[in-house]
Amino acid sequence: MTNKILYVLGALAMVLLARDIYVIARLPGEVEQGAIFKIIFFHVPVAITAMTAAAVALVASILFLVTRNFRYDALAVSVTEVGLAFLAANLVTGSIWGRVIWGIWWTWDARLTSALVCWLLYASYLMLRKAIDEPTQRATFAAVWSIFSFIDVPIVIFSIKWWRTQHPQPVFWGGGSFPADWGRIFAWNMLAVVLVGVVMTMVRLRQEDAQRELDSLRRTAHAI
Amino acid sequence: MSAVAVDGVWKYYGDYPALRDIRLEAEPGACLALIGRNGAGKTTLLRILAGFSRPGRGEVRIFGKSPREGEARRRIGFIGHGIAVYDELSAVENLTLFARLYGLPDPRRAALEWLERTGLARVATGLVREFSRGMRQRLAVARAFLHGPSVLFLDEPFTALDDRAIAVLQGLLREALAEGKTIVMSTHQLREALELASHVALLNRGKVAFDGPRTPEMVADPGYVYERYGEN
Amino acid sequence: MGFFRQVFVIMAKDLRAEIRTKEAINASLAFALVILLLFSFAFENSDESMKDNLGGLLWIVFAFAGTLVLNRSFARELPNDCLDALIAAPISGAALFLGKALANYVLVLGVELVSLPVFGIFYDVRWARQFPELLLVLLLGTWGLTVIGTMSSALTVNIRLREVMLPMLTYPILVPALLGAMQLTSPLVAGTPIGPETVTWLKMLIGFDAIYTAVSLFLVETVLVS
Question: pTM of the prediction?
Fold first, then answer.
């Protein structure tokens, strides 16, 4: 049953994505910045998806601590990994955009810097998980750290924004104008991106379930 | 009310059950010897009884309370694999610290008293780092008994003790039992443990394979329980 | 025994053990001095205006050197399984955490206060011009560092690669606090008092400290007894 849902969603996501890329490619270039501005169709949705992933991870972590059900731990790690990948996509698209428009690969503008810090935050969550072998301890500690990390996200965004308000720099990306009729395409692509995220999370979840079963079988085998 | 009641306890490492449906009871004044092969789950069970970890399922009650509650913690004494005293502090500093943590009315006096009882009075101000192995073990025993616990959980307490430490510990345990305290001890040293034990429980791969009073056959042949109820 | 008495007993124990062995504090001080020295090579020929930004440098020194102290915090309980004895004792996880955090706080502040005059000498900076306000920033910023670091110490105490994991966990979370502390310290060291632009950083630091102290106290028991 889950397999079927997975395939259907996956197919849907691929079709939607393909169609969106086709439509977006055929849009006229933006007034000030040309074709590269269309990267916004991916740059923003992946960021929104990553943020949603962080929120889901928070809820899953809290639910794990309360119920001690390992499925919530599996959800937390799956969604965090996918979110991290999407946030990386945000950083890369932002960097490419900047390279084309400003000629440099990076600058410490507020959004990019916040994204980088958040990426490091959740990367350290994954590193923590890797360093703990025992499943219950790993799930518990990771859940605690996920809560700590999520609390930091708004603080990071605010403080870096304030820093840039105090010491202004040209905003790296953004600018340009977003024509009103592009709104629908944006929404469709948002849906496509979220779907890809959901499919990736589901695949990762299944892998986690299989891994848990393997681990317990291995321990049973050793005990015999 | 029993001193220690284990009711349907399971412990999981991930999905693997290290302890399965453990049901045991120890009445006040009993001495339960917990035996079993390495990996059977003795240490896991003892740590749950003493409140260091939580069971995945089921309950433990120490005189009716969870071992994590303050009241229960005051009545529990534990000796594990480590001596649980600080190398960089002196013997009396260590014991005074724990006496304070347990809220004893006169921490220093209690500390000195127990140094006396474990034969460490002469080295009270010496740093633990400089102690011999036997002295360290006796200090660990002092730390466990210091706050007058009613229930003692001992994880292989006789392993690697020297003769003097064994004698001290056996003496203290006999006294404790005479005072009506309860002891649960896991052990490989069947002979020393079975001399003191009133009950025996055998753990085999996370389950209780045998649970009953100590019999003369067991004292005569310590391997008896393994042969009858354990695996080959 | 009251909560704060328990906190005090734990704090006193940690401080006594550290002052007797001086392992962490010596390493931390040495590390701070080395970093100050190395950075001075990088800044040697910079112009006067760079000096106004040097205050921020202090926090890199504090954060890195502080980690050596913070790492020790729960790690010192590992030999002889002392952590077990502390968990078994009738004190709450929160009291254990707070006692250790306070001990760390004292030690890290000590390292920082020794580093300040060395900084002044190496970089020819008169750092004491706004000393009361500088001290306030030190107290607030160090508490943030301490709370996160002590929590990370509890989380990494018996896992693989502990020494590597603690900085990996601590620094990303600390970014806002370190940023704020740097933004406050640079003008103070250059002689400008805290003004309407920088006071927001002060509020942010206070907020950071309050939130993470509360969350840590709430969650530490879960970490200690699993």
Answer: 0.91
- How confident is the model at residue C58, as a pLDDT? 92
User: Are A134 and B15 inside 8 Å of each other by CB?
Assistant: no
Q: Summarize the confidence of residues B28-43 as an average pLDDT.
A: 89
Q: Which residues in chain C have Cβ-Cβ distances shorter than 8 Å to A121? A: 172-173
From the CB of residue A156, how many other CB atoms can be counted at a distance below 10 Å?
A: 24
Return the SS3 of C25.
helix
Interface predicted TM-score (ipTM) of this complex, two decimals: 0.91
Length of chain C: 226
Helix C131-156 to helix C199-224 angle (10° resolution) is: 20
**Region of poorest pLDDT, from B157-171, B174-188, C134-148, C150-164:** B157-171
Q: Residues A180-199: pLDDT tens digits?
A: 777 888 888 899 999 999 99
Interface test with C, best of A61, A63, A152 (most C CBs within 10 A): A152
Give the number of domains in chain C. 1
Give pLDDT, residue C55.
76
CB contact under 8 A, C90 and B101: yes
Beta carbons of C215 and A151 less than 8 Å apart: yes
| Cβ-based burial of C176 (10 A; exposed 0-12, middle 13-18, buried ≥19) | buried
Min distance A161 CA to chain C CA atoms (Å): 11
pLDDT above 70: residue A67: yes
Per the listing, tokens 């197919």 go with A11
Identify the burial level of C225 via C-beta atoms within 10 angstroms of its C-beta, where 0-12 means exposed, 13-18 middle and 19 or more buried: middle
Structural contact between residues A168 and A79, judged by C-beta atoms closer than 8 angstroms: no
Taking CA atoms, what residue in C is nearest to B67? C88
A159 contact residues in C (CB cutoff 8 A): 175-176, 179-180, 204
Cβ of B13 within 8 Å of Cβ of A213? The answer is no
